[in-house]
Amino acid sequence: MGWYNKRLAKSIWVFHVSASPCNNCDIEILDLLTPRYDLERFGIKLVGSIRHADVLLVSGIFNQKVGPRVQQIYQQAPKPCFVVGIGTCPASGCCFKDSYNISKNIKDIIPINLYIPGCPPKPENMIAGIVKLVEVLNA
């Protein structure tokens, strides 16, 4: 497992999962790909297939309809796969946490390894969170 983490620390491929978001986090994630932040200079690349991903970026609320789909996507990812919750919604449920349609325990659906809080989080905070993940993988 250690060899995989060393390889992953040099080049992380990320798949973005939108689980009923308000799209504020999604816009900030797309901002990471612009020349201003240029996420690819750190070896982090956004991929279009879950089968190529090392990390899942999850934004939004897990409601009753989206929860099983997110679980299915996570099961298709090659293991080990790390999950990063972007924004306040995956971390605490935000203003939707008492809604009848929301899955009460997100950790029962998929394990989330890292939370990046904020509504929406700034691109600098997302970069710092991913860099912390890389530091953990290098240890």
Description:
Helices cover 35% and strands 17% of the residues. The chain is built from five helices and five strands. β3, α3 and β4 form a beta-alpha-beta unit. A five-stranded parallel sheet has the order 2-1-3-4-5. α1 runs antiparallel to α5. By secondary structure, it is an alpha/beta fold.
Short description:
This protein is of the alpha/beta class.
Q: Tell me, briefly, the overall form.
A: globular
State mean pLDDT (0 to 100 scale): 82
C-alpha termini separation:
13 Å
Indicate the structural class: alpha/beta
Number of strands: 5
In terms of quaternary structure, what is this?
single chain
User: The CATH topology is what?
Assistant: Rossmann fold
Low-confidence stretches: none
Helical percentage: 25-40%
* CATH C-level label: Alpha Beta
Strand content: 15-25%
Give the second-level CATH assignment, the architecture: 3-Layer(aba) Sandwich
Strand order of the largest sheet: 2-1-3-4-5
Largest sheet: 5 strands, parallel
Radius of gyration: 14 Å
List the total number of helices: 5
List the helices and strands and how they pair.
Layout: H1 2-10, E1 12-18, H2 24-31, E2 44-46, E3 55-59, H3 66-76, E4 82-86, H4 88-92, E5 114-116, H5 123-138
Parallel strand pairs: 1-2, 1-3, 3-4, 4-5
Helix pairs in contact: 1-5
Features:
Rossmann fold; about 15% strand; alpha/beta; about 140 residues; globular; 5-stranded parallel sheet
